[in-house]
Amino acid sequence: MRKSMKRATALTLAVLSAVSLAACGGSTSSSDSGSADSSNGGGSSSDGQVNLTFSWWGGDSRHEATEAAIAKFMELHPEITVTPEYGAWTGWEEKQSLNILGGNAADVMQINWNWIESYSNNGSNFADLHQYEDVLDLTQFPEASVQQCEVDGKLMAVPVALTGRLFYWNKTTFDEVGVAIPTDTESLLAAGAAFQAYGEDYYPLALGEYDRMIFLVYYLESKYNKPWVENGQIQYTAEEIQDGMDFMCQLEEAHVIPTIATIQGDMADSLDKNAKWIDGKYAGIFEWDSSANKFQQAVEQSTNKPGQEFVIGEYIKLGDYKGGFTKISMGLAVAATSEHPKEAAMLINFLLNEAEGVEILSTERGIPCSSAALGILEEKGLGDPLVMEANAKVMDYCPFPLDSKFEHNDLKANPDGVYYKVFGKLSAGDIDSAQAAADLIEGVNECLGN
Fold it and tell me: Which of 161, 252, 241 is CA-nearest to residue 204?
């Protein structure tokens, strides 16, 4: 159980400053297109109707399934109205951090696991869901996962799923290029050469800045068999991290991955919306098992190149050991400011434990932690086979846990987070691998409080 987690320091100061400015007359616009009005809908109308808001991010299939589940919940509970607020991931955390710390958060929130540490303010910004176990069945969730969502014994969120990253490939493009899908360093580099010979704008793998950080850790763990961070300390030397940075540079030079400037020049919010991914020019990704659907749909529904085949690959052997980590993919939390936390907990229970909600959501947020949900999916034969296969591979292969600061906004925020700055500068040639390693160590240590 984690004790007295600290609030995110630098981001929190910025957020509180922004909130203060807003209170002096500033205003913000509504969130991403397709989402509902982001004003707080909590409270009760004069006729006793309970109004809740529910915020989440994701792709179109998650949006559609969640809206359908909300509609079913309201059909079963006509006294409760739920207003959805949703959008893409880009910029989502920054918007929601303002809402949370400003006291304007949605009643029910989909949150990343690390938000508990970053934004719970030692347990004061999220409701203690242990208080609502009369309507929220927590016995369905693994005790260890529940404890990872606690602060001083108070439950800040219900764990939705466990996840990890693995490789997905556009088999159609690999077949056209005439090279095997990579399984080790040698075949990865061979694929880069073959793709470059096929076309300068074709690459076997595409990695953004944050993807590169996760790939770097995977490489290091595969070669040195140590967790990235343990007990609040980086476990790797500057020389070992420089080795990983050198390997990242080698992948660019060998035409395995495009430069950051190339990806930014594609003018896409995310890789699943990138035309080069959709049309098969980028033929591989290193992604969360719970995110497979949106990438699969993007290539299979391409209008320029229909009928492409999207497959799960094996873990690429980059050393003598197994690398990679697993984590709680996300949680569902209730704002401490909610006027109806019990009804909010009822909604969470419906989505994660009850047959009607589980059947609609299926595996849109990954393979559920809830044993009740798993039983329902198995009994009904539901769930995306691709997500299920991917999750099974992740859980079988990845031996390391994720440290709670790895996804801190000071590190992963785009474009000002440490990861984005370090890998952007390395890719542009503004710093060498030794400096990149030093800058990464300094930034992570600062976030860790070292």
Answer: 252
pLDDT of residue 50: 97
Please give the average per-residue pLDDT across 293-317, as a whole number: 95
* CB-CB contact of 277 with 284 (8 Å): no
pLDDT exceeds 90 at position 293: no
Q: Give the structural domain span for 80.
A: 9-163+327-391
CA 66, CA 72: separation in Å to the nearest integer? 10
Task: Kindly state the tokens that stand for 81.
Answer: 């109205």
pTM for this model (two decimals): 0.77
Instruction: Round the average pLDDT of the chain to a whole number and report it.
Output: 90
| Confidence band, pLDDT 50/70/90 cuts, at residue 43 | low
* Cα–Cα distance measured from residue 114 to residue 132, given in angstroms and rounded to the nearest whole number: 23
Two tokens at 83?
Answer: 């207003």
Same domain, 298 and 336: no
Partner residues linked to 162 by β-bridges? 328
Q: Tell me how far apart the alpha carbons of residues 440 and 222 are, in angstroms, rounded to a whole number.
A: 19
pLDDT tens profile 237-279: 999 999 999 999 999 999 999 999 999 999 998 999 999 999 9
81 and 51 in a common domain: yes
Angstrom distances, CA of residue 106 to CA of 35, 189, 231, 335:
13, 47, 33, 7
Kindly state whether residues 30 and 152 are assigned to the same domain. Answer: yes
Q: How many domains, in total, are found in the chain?
A: 2
User: How many Å apart are CA 107 and CA 424, to the nearest integer?
Assistant: 37
Please indicate, yes or no, whether residues 99 and 221 belong to a single structural domain of this protein: no
Final residue belonging to a domain, choices 364, 391, 418: 391
Inside any domain, residue 3:
no
